[in-house]
Amino acid sequence: MTAGRRKYKRVLLKLSGEVFKGSKPYGIDTAVVVKIADDIKEISADTEIGIVIGGGNIFRGVSESAAGMDRTSADHMGMLATVMNSLALQDSLEKVGVHTRVQSAIQMHQVAEPYIRRRAIRHLEKGRVVIFAAGTGNPFFSTDTAAALRANEISADVILKATKVDGVYDEDPVKNPDATKFTELTYRAVLERKLGIMDLTAITLCMDNNLPIIVFDLKINRNIYKAVLGENVGTYIGG
Fold first, then answer.
1. Is 199 buried (19+), middle (13-18) or exposed (0-12) by CB count in 10 A?
2. Which one of 2, 27, 123, 198 has the largest count of C-beta atoms within 10 Å of its C-beta?
3. Domain extent listing, the chain
4. Phi/psi class of residue 22: alpha, beta or left (left: φ > 0; alpha: ψ in -120 to 50)?
5. φ and ψ at residue 160, rounded to 5 degrees
6. Is residue 130 within 8 Å of residue 49, measured between CB atoms?
7. CA-CA distance, 137 to 118, in Å (whole number)?
8. What is the mean pLDDT of the segment spanning 165-188?
9. In this structure, are residues 202 and 196 in contact, taking their beta carbons and an 8 Å threshold?
């Protein structure tokens, strides 16, 4: 990537845990993680990258809480699932020559650094990818909210939300093939329409700090690269 062409210098990439399972019913598809690592490598030379990964391919705290498990216990287990995904991505990134650090909101010194904002920023400035694991470290907060929080803390220029769909629709495009896709939305429109692409806490946090969000399909070739350049991919959410 040519540094002069990029639109965003520092980004927070939010990855869905569901993407990591590929075609498997659950768990981690190594081939998918390797492909994601290759996509990240393409922009890593001159873009500072923080990453937050969900854990839904392994364990979903909200679902298990609804099934009768204590919500706090379920959320903590979900946080640990994000650590597993973070370590898998770190392994793939290191194998393609991208220096990576995992920082966990839950301390586990044997496998990850503790989350320290100033240290994270220093890693980014040195060209290292930083993966923020274990959500916010607190129950009742989603990894979307963790992404919004970390993005604001590291002064990211944008949140790149990579999902399994190619943007934000007025209805679920899987259930309704005639659903309308938005190319651009305001934060308030997302909140008022209850579009559900991110939880309300995450959207509000971004709105309060004027942090734009781009929602796009991770499976489309080079979409991360195109998003960093500022090309029209997916749906842009801003003021």
1. middle
2. 198
3. 3-238
4. left
5. -100, 105
6. yes
7. 18
8. 93
9. no
Do the beta carbons of residue 191 and residue 204 sit within 8 Å?
yes
Asked if residue 187 lies in contact with residue 237, where contact means CB atoms within 8 angstroms, the answer is yes
Residues in the chain, overall count? 239
Reduced to 3 states (helix: H, G, I; strand: E, B; else coil), residue 11 is: strand
- pLDDT value of position 68: 82
pTM over the 0.85 mark: yes
Domain 3-238 in CATH 3.40.462.20? The answer is no
- The per-residue pLDDT for range 216-239, each reduced to its tens digit, is 999 999 999 999 999 999 999 998
In this prediction, residue 60 carries a pLDDT of: 79
| Cβ atoms of residues 154 and 6 within 8 Å | no
Tokens for 95? 């194998």
